[in-house]
Amino acid sequence: MQSEHTSDLQAEKLDIIQWLAGVNEHRIIKQFMLLKQTNQESISLQLSTDEKKAIDAGIASIESGRSMTHDEAMAITRKKFSGLYK
Question: Where are the alpha helices (DSSP H) in the chain?
């Protein structure tokens, strides 16, 4: 399922790239450049190197199938900390 999502994402990105390649309006290109700059600035300002590494590790775990649903996590939590759930 993850490879299907990845291929869909790649197809969407290629579609945007092809569309953008045909754009001849300076205003639209400038808007994309501002979006890119804003995105890069907000990410670099908000996340530390350790946070970025942790996120990358989490994504890698999910992509390799090492994850659980919210319900599974809650069941483990309820079992481990049963005194908190009455």
Answer: 2-21, 26-46, 49-63, 70-80
Rounded to whole angstroms, the Cα distance separating 41 from 35 reads 10
Q: What are phi and psi of 69, to 5 degrees?
A: -80, 165
What's the chain's length in residues? 86
pTM of the entire structure?
A: 0.40
Q: What share of the chain is helix, strand, coil (3-state, %, to 5)?
A: 80, 0, 20
For residues 20 and 14, what is the distance between their CA atoms, to the nearest angstrom?
A: 10
**pLDDT tens for residues 42-67?**
766 677 889 889 999 999 999 999 99
Q: How many helices (H) and strands (E) does the chain have?
A: 4, 0
Q: What is the arithmetic mean of pLDDT over 61-86?
A: 90
